[in-house]
Design a protein that fits this description.
Strand content: 25-35%
GO molecular function: dioxygenase activity
Largest sheet: 8 strands, mixed
CATH topology: 2,3-Dihydroxybiphenyl 1,2-Dioxygenase, domain 1
Shape: globular
Helix content: 10-25%
Order of helices and strands: EHEEEEHEEEEHEEEEHEEEH
CATH superfamily: 2,3-Dihydroxybiphenyl 1,2-Dioxygenase, domain 1
CATH architecture: Roll
Keywords: Dioxygenase, Oxidoreductase
Number of helices: 5
Low-confidence stretches: none
Number of strands: 16
Organism: Devosia riboflavina
Pfam families: Glyoxalase
Protein name: Dioxygenase
Radius of gyration: 18 Å
Structural class: alpha+beta
Number of domains: 1
């Protein structure tokens, strides 16, 4: 069993409208835009990152906004709900705040003894706020989302699978242990993670596979401390039979990818070097940052990329 993985690193999803995406996460959820850059493989498209002050691993939601993308079709073989951690006794405040800001799909409930508020994003994305006791992670705050109820980072992500068996075994190999099981959902967790410690698996044998599009999660990333730890994980996965990509430099972390038995794309990402490698922490996300291989496209991109702050 591996011990290098320390919880979630980031979750990357698809969107259609970059401006609406930016407004939703910065104005309505109160996260900080910690980086605006472009998709390495399709530089005409933004890659937007939102999280806490520094973009700490375990807090970062990222998006590829493709202007012409169709809405995704939800199903199995994908991430279902991305859940954020908030302080106890704050869901009333959140319900009021989200309702005031026109967020739809609000529904209260509880999972594994924790109260939660489910809601949908602008592309039909599935999100939840989970009341968490003693989450000491420092939040980013805004004029409308105060410290008292601000998001602390990820709580968990759920996987919707037709058959959970092989993916559960993979997660256990990655260091997760089964915490609880209820109502057809298995919760796996890390004992000494970064706070973004849980993966919930929902088994849906009669549901077809999802179709990637706006509102879909493209991949889910798990955190390791550094490149040496990442190489240890890569070797262990390959020795177990997984086909893992070479290490890829993503400017703000190094990444490897592999497809899970249930169809979900997993990434293992390093905590280093971080989002402040090319911007002062006080100014994260303010300027368009480009990978060096795409810097020659700057004049075109600055003219054609959708303004994030426009009305």
């Amino acid at each position: 069993m591996l011990d290098q993985i320390k919880g979630l690193h980031h979750v990357t999803s698809m969107a259609k409208d970059a401006h609406n995406n930016n407004q939703f996460f910065t104005k309505k959820l109160g996260l900080r835009r910690v980086k605006q850059t472009v998709n390495f493989d399709e530089p005409s498209v933004y890659h937007l990152y939102y999280g806490d002050e520094k973009g700490t691993p375990g807090s970062v939601m990222t998006y590829f906004p493709f202007p012409n993308i169709a809405r995704g079709q939800f199903g199995t073989g994908e991430v279902g709900t991305t859940a954020f951690s908030v302080p106890e006794n704050t869901l009333d405040l959140w319900s009021e705040h989200l309702t005031k800001n026109g967020v739809s799909g609000l529904s209260r409930g509880a999972t594994f003894g924790q109260k939660r508020l489910d809601f949908t994003g602008p592309e039909g994305d599935s999100f939840s706020l989970v009341e968490t006791r003693d989450d000491v992670r420092a939040p980013w705050t805004t004029e409308t989302v105060s410290y008292a109820f601000a998001i602390r980072g990820f709580h968990s992500a759920s996987l919707r699978l037709r058959d959970a068996g092989a993916t559960e075994e993979l997660l256990k190999f990655m260091g997760y242990e089964e915490v609880d099981k209820h109502g057809g959902i298995s919760r796996l967790g890390l004992a000494n993670g970064n706070g973004a410690d849980f993966i919930d698996i929902e088994t849906l044998p009669d549901v077809g596979f999802g179709r990637l599009g706006a509102g879909s999660v493209h991949h889910i990333a798990f955190a390791v401390e550094n490149r040496a730890k990442q190489l240890e994980v890569r070797k262990a996965l390959m020795d177990t039979g997984y086909q893992v990509t070479p290490v890829i430099d993503r400017d703000y972390f190094w990444a490897i990818y592999f497809r899970t038995p249930g169809g979900v794309l997993f990434e293992i990402a390093t905590n280093e070097p971080g989002f402040d490698r090319d911007e002062d922490t006080k100014h994260l996300g303010e300027a368009l940052k480009l990978p060096i291989q795409h810097e020659h496209l700057r004049p075109y991109l600055e003219q054609h990329l959708q303004p994030l702050e426009s009305a």
